[in-house]
């Protein structure tokens, strides 16, 4: 299936019914599992994962663009979290059990989520306190995860933990990744959040045994497996932000051309016109950058981190400026969704890694030009 075909599939699948489900989910602040089931049944995930272990990057971004146009961070991020968990199982799942769960998730028959953050460390996964211990012919998983999005509707949780059996002197670390059915854990009541209401997020308490086949990544590869899934999620978030920004800028432009102030349309006021032109130009650049990644077809950890942090910061600025241009109406929740979109965008700067975490990834992958510096130093010495 080429990209135009996939785009057509998405246009057909994301119909008025899914838009209605999205509106209902915003009202109820609860994620509609039937949406993931629909995407699976209609082959949205299957087409994207036709390559097997690696995602079709152009399709990853086409799906992200479609999700971004829904105007609901809770829905769009929820779908990408499920799909990012598929990414981990597709690449690192070696046992028949893990392959079966991945296939079920692709078909929409099972919902996946990732349990990483704890009260102890947030983004610092190397200090997680959840433990995995060898027990009989499997593993004991014991601990508490604080922020587990989709856990109230999920069938399986990919749990980030530390191996108690691990050799502490190893330079590869002790982080492991293991699959745990939600039927074997305690999922607490979902949190009330500032935004992204439909993204059901709850704490998960676990003290359970799972077979050895449930181990996704052992010590030494655990962080790599999680990083792979996060790169998938970050690229998706960048695409969602680009589409969301384009959507709100279009709506704001329509308001500027229809609303009159001081005898002129808002669009005729140069200060406002130039402001939205600047924002649109930068959103266009973001979209072209993402399309360049799609053309290259590779999922790269540094690039995903850079695009996500840049997109999130731009998205927050776009939503803030558009809300400002809407004036008082932007503050009326019953009159426009602008305020909700503004709050939703903050999630992009926190979920999937904060700005600072992603900047570290980018900084650590940068390559200094020592030869260029030495040549310059000789000319100024």
Rounded average pLDDT: 93
Low-confidence residue ranges: none
Figure out the total of helices: 13
| CA distance, first residue to last residue | 59 Å
Order of helices and strands: HHHHHHHEEEEEEEEHEEHHHHH
Per DSSP, what share of the residues sits in E-state strands of 2 or more residues?
5-15%
Q: What class would the helix/strand composition place it in?
A: alpha+beta
What's the β-strand tally? 10
Secondary structure: helix percent: 40-55%
| CA gyration radius, whole angstroms | 22 Å
Major beta-sheet overview: 8 strands, mixed
Estimate the global geometry from the Cα principal axes. Answer: globular
Write structural notes for this entry.
The chain has helices spanning 3-13, 16-28, 33-41, 44-48, 57-68, 73-92, 96-107, 222-258, 270-296, 301-326, 338-346, 355-365, 370-380; strands at residues 112-115, 131-135, 138-149, 156-163, 175-181, 186-187, 201-211, 215-217, 260-261, 264-265. It has 381 residues and is an alpha+beta fold. Strands 1, 2, 3, 4, 5, 6, 7 and 8 form an 8-stranded mixed beta sheet that branches. A two-stranded antiparallel ribbon has the order 9-10. Strand 2 and strand 3 form a beta hairpin. The protein is globular, with a radius of gyration of 22 Å.
